[in-house]
Amino acid sequence: MTESRGSAGPNGGTNTRRTPGTPCWVSLMVHSLTATEEFYGALFGWEFRPGPQQLGPYVRALLDGREVAGIGRLPADRPLSVAWTPYLASNDVNRTAETVRLCGGTVAVGPLDAADAGRMAIASDPSGAVFGIWQGGAHGGAAVTGVPGTLVWNELVTFDTASVVKFYATVFGYTQEPVVSAGLDHVTLHIDGRPVAGVHGMGNGLPRERGPHWRTYFAVADTDATLHQVVGLGGQVLKPAHDSAHGRVATVADPEGARFSVIQSPR
Hints:
InterPro entries: Anthracycline_SecMetBiosynth (IPR052164), Glyas_Bleomycin-R_OHBP_Dase (IPR029068), Glyoxalase_6 (IPR041581), VOC_core (IPR037523). The chain is α+β, with helices and mostly antiparallel strands. The chain is built from 4 helices and 16 strands. The strands form 2 sheets. An 8-stranded mixed sheet has the order 2-3-4-1-5-8-7-6, with helices on one face. 44% of the residues are buried.
């Protein structure tokens, strides 16, 4: 999953022009922008600078001066969920948004311009999982991925993979590779022969209160140490650290309840 700093990571690396369908950015909308900046600044070493304000106050998170994520403030009159949202690259967000609608998805926001940064929309697939669509302008997406403190992977957690994978393949042109394992419903989505995201079907094991959703993974140098930091900063450990084929992984929530996973590359 992880890549070296400055290289083309699994979510697009440093290329300014992403192949359509490639996860290129991740954004979080919260109630308290200041408190959230303090949490992620302490956890990942992020610094912040203002970004496009079309949807309200918004900042871009930087690691070593390179943009890695976005955080915005939710409108006070909108009871929206606090969650990390991946943005998938598009060469024509209007056309992609229309394809989303034709394939049974919903477009909730946009398409609209984000100043000169690019053009965007926020949509959901037929099962209700929310994702963004990004047509890069001056801002192509994350400047670096796959190193500690940056995005490393995105995975759709849903009821079953069959129908929803067909939706994403039609909209973004993904090819798919099933993970062969008894009792495991898991598919890896590919662009140009490389893996860019996963889809995990949980059936009745999917928490009903959450429903289908995209999960963001951030790389860390030490998963266990990161969990101590999360708790010390007011967050929660939702799934304790365990070893996987891709590294030591855990799932946590920030103080506002936004869930994400952290993963340490195998040593």
